């Protein structure tokens, strides 16, 4: 009897030692629900900020664009009256034309200068200190930039006009003449954004393999041929992104115009943002100002998606 019990105990101990280790329990639906609540709790501040500072103002602006709203009276629904006024508003179309002229100058000159600068920096292999110094103008506020350049381009006391007067005998009214106002503002905008755009393009150039250029040199391609046939096609995604950012930023220009020209002389530099500001805070016609803002938003969305579609922004010739 004792022998049978001893043998049974040995069998039990053997089974205990050879038993597989316990497996971890999988999380059930209740555990997943807890994780979901934690995720929503972490995302809640961002959703709250999005709703308060973006979604609600946008929806409120869309509603006000169909109303007649002055600051001291409640909004009155007018339907499409503001849109009809917009279509027949000659000053709106004039400001839209000035904005388009400013955008074309800023984008063409800005992207061109930035691309050349990025290529030179890439070939020279400059360090991060030089690239950091280049981006400094972008970090300066538009108001400070406009003030400094307004003083420098002053026809009587500005250092730039002092040199021009010494060479040509007479100063140039950069911000005071119809022909020079918009190009001067575009040049100021290019100076401010050129460093940032050049750094973005420089980062894109670093992603191009050096072996591609070596193969081009072996085939006897010149620097210009490699830039046109290799650099530009391979840089297309970054280049399109820079163009889109410049179009959006130039279309929304306000601070440098407000400080330097205030839309003058004789509405020569009246960009659309200045006209919207004048309607809203000068004439207190917030309903019509909201209509113009909505029209500007729709135009920006259309231009952005058109550029991305035509330029195949998500692809390059390496794909």
Give an account of the 3D structure.
- There is one protein chain.
- With 319 residues, the protein is mainly alpha-helical.
- The longest helix has 36 residues, at 29-64.
- The termini are far apart.
- It is globular and about 70 Å long.
- Helices cover 74% and strands 1% of the residues.
- The protein has 15 helices and two strands.
- Strand 1 and strand 2 form a beta hairpin.
- Helix 9 (178-206) runs antiparallel to helix 12 (236-251).
- The protein has a two-stranded antiparallel sheet with strand order 1-2.
- Residues 1-5 have low confidence and may be disordered.
- Belongs to the binding-protein-dependent transport system permease family.
- This is Sugar ABC transporter permease.
- Keywords: Cell membrane, Membrane, Transmembrane, Transmembrane helix, Transport.
Set out the fold topology:
Blueprint: H1 2-18, H2 29-64, E1 67-68, E2 76-77, H3 81-87, H4 90-124, H5 128-134, H6 136-139, H7 142-152, H8 159-168, H9 178-206, H10 210-218, H11 223-234, H12 236-251, H13 255-260, H14 272-282, H15 286-311
Helix pairs in contact: 3-15, 4-9, 4-12, 9-12, 12-15, 14-15
InterPro entries: ABC_transporter_permease (IPR051393), MetI-like (IPR000515), MetI-like_sf (IPR035906)
Family: Belongs to the binding-protein-dependent transport system permease family.
Biased composition (Polar residues): 1-10
- Low-pLDDT runs: 1-5
Sheet with the most strands: spatial strand order: 1-2
- What coarse outline follows from CA principal-axis ratios? globular
Strand residue percentage:
under 5%
- The residue-averaged pLDDT reads 84
């Amino acid at each position: 009897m004792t022998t049978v019990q001893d043998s049974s105990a040995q069998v039990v101990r053997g089974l205990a030692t050879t038993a597989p280790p316990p497996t971890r329990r999988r999380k059930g639906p209740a555990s997943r629900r807890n994780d979901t609540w934690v995720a929503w709790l972490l995302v809640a501040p961002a959703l709250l900020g999005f709703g308060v500072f973006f979604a609600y103002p946008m929806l409120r602006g869309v509603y006000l664009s169909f109303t007649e709203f002055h600051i001291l009276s409640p909004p009155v629904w007018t339907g499409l009256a503001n849109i009809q006024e917009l279509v027949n508003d000659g000053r709106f179309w004039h400001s839209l034309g000035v904005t388009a002229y400013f955008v074309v100058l800023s984008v063409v000159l800005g992207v061109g200068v930035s691309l050349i600068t990025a290529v030179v920096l890439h070939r020279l292999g400059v360090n991060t200190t030089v690239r950091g110094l280049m981006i400094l103008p972008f970090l300066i506020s538009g108001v400070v930039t406009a003030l400094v350049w307004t003083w420098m381009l002053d026809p009587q006391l500005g250092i730039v006009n002092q040199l021009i007067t010494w060479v040509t005998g007479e100063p140039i009214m950069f911000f005071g003449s119809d022909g020079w106002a918009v190009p001067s503002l575009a040049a100021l905008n290019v100076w401010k954004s050129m460093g940032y755009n050049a750094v973005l393009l420089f980062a894109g150039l670093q992603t191009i393999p050096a072996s591609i250029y070596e193969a081009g040199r072996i085939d006897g391609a010149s620097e210009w041929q490699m830039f046109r046939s290799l650099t530009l096609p391979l840089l297309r995604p970054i280049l399109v992104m820079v163009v889109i950012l410049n179009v959006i930023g130039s279309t929304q220009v306000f601070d440098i115009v407000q400080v330097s020209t205030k839309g003058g002389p004789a509405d020569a530099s009246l960009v659309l943002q200045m006209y919207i500001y004048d309607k809203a805070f000068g004439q207190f016609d917030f309903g019509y100002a909201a209509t113009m803002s909505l029209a500007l938003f729709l135009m920006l969305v259309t231009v952005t998606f058109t550029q991305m579609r035509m330029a195949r922004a998500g692809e390059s010739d390496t794909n």
